[in-house]
Amino acid sequence: MTIIIEELKKVPSTEIVNYAETRTGIDHQVVATFDTGIFANGIIADHDAKIYANWWPQPAPDKAEFKFHYTDSSGYDCGWHRQKNEHVDGLDHFQERTDSEEEYEYEAVEFEQDNPTGLVWEIADDKLKRRVQTQHDPNFRLSDFTD
Amino acid sequence: MVTQEEELRGTEQWEAKTEGFDRILSVALTLEKPRPVSWISEEARVSENTARKYLERFHEMDALTVAEQGATTYYPNSAYLRFRDVSHVATELDREELEKRVTSLSEKSEAIGEMYEASGPGQLRERVTDEDISTDELRKLREAASEWESLDYRLSISREALERYDQHNMSHRQQVV
How far is it, in rounded angstroms, from Cα B150 to Cα B132? Predict the structure, then answer.
């Protein structure tokens, strides 16, 4: 998790990176807030926007599992997960919903990077920005981009 | 204001904002299995020659181990990672803080054992193989086992840092002088 924290701090739009309690309550996850003036071209003035990162090493030969999940005050949340899930084949998937009352929509995803550091940049500084802009900016189109 | 077309994104930004040396080191020290130079250089966005040069130096420093698997492969040296983690904790915390951390982590580890009615994360791993378990339960168990392993690792690091505290700080002071 130290690597995740250090890299999230380097991503230009992140502001505060700290530890937070996990769902299991056993160990820590990383939570980062954004400089809303920089993140996604400043389209969201939302100081509640956060990205939660978990990294779960597994015994060989299994790959480490992870979760990078974004939430904001509009109710929208989305995330890139490498975890077993009933909705898609394989472990790697993207999920999103526009409201916490709704069911998630899932789709399989392929990552360009296969190391923790590169994944932080690929997700927090690219995939996430595009999804947030698609959600909050009517002029932004995801049409030329697929996860 | 940069336009979408002009703006560097993701791994391009990573490449622009960081040095090749740091990218190779962070990729190499987080490898989950031995990897050849070609794989590491591609992930770290550096040329193979540059990657090979740095990886060999990291190997000479005992940060990485080398194995021949058709090609030369590199893998983090667990003893080096452990030494680095112990040194970091020993310089970050004083003796009293270390003692508090060991106590707090020990209590937490015991409480988790009671909560899951297990003697350690290995027992949670065994439950993962239960055929009657749902996907959601399986995911939660794998999360819990991994987090418990991480907590126990931090506990062992803190204990070792406490044992070596005086020795480490004495040698550190000598180096500074």
Answer: 27
Which residue of B8, B12, B13 to mutate against A (max A Cβ within 10 Å)?
A: B13
Q: Sort strands B64-69 and A50-56 into parallel, antiparallel or unpaired.
A: unpaired
Contact status, residue B154 vs residue B105, Cβ threshold 8 Å? yes
> What are the angstrom distances between the C-alpha of A65 and each of A12, A36, A58, A85, B15?
25, 29, 7, 12, 25
Please check whether residue A57 is in contact with residue A41, taking contact to mean a CB–CB distance below 8 angstroms: no
Find where tokens 């069911």 sit: A103
- pLDDT at residue A143 above 70? no
Question: How many CB pairs below 8 A link A and B?
Answer: 103
Chain A CB within 8 Å of residue B130 CB: no
C-alpha–C-alpha distance, residues A48 and A71, integer Å: 8
- Whether residue A100 contacts residue A77, with contact meaning beta carbons closer than 8 Å, is answered with yes
* Joined tokens for residue B12: 């391009």
Nearest to A72 by CA among A117, A40, A116: A40
The predicted model scores a pTM of: 0.87
Cα torsion for B48, B54, B57, B62, to the nearest 10°? Answer: -100
* Distance of alpha carbon A69 from alpha carbon A66, whole angstroms: 10
pLDDT digits (tens, 9 = 90+) for B57-112: 999 999 999 998 788 999 999 999 999 999 989 888 999 999 999 999 999 999 99
Output the CA torsion sign for B106, A3, B41, B61: negative
| Close Cβ partners of A78 (under 8 Å, ≥ 6 residues apart) | A69, A70, A94, A95, A96, A97, A128, A131, A135
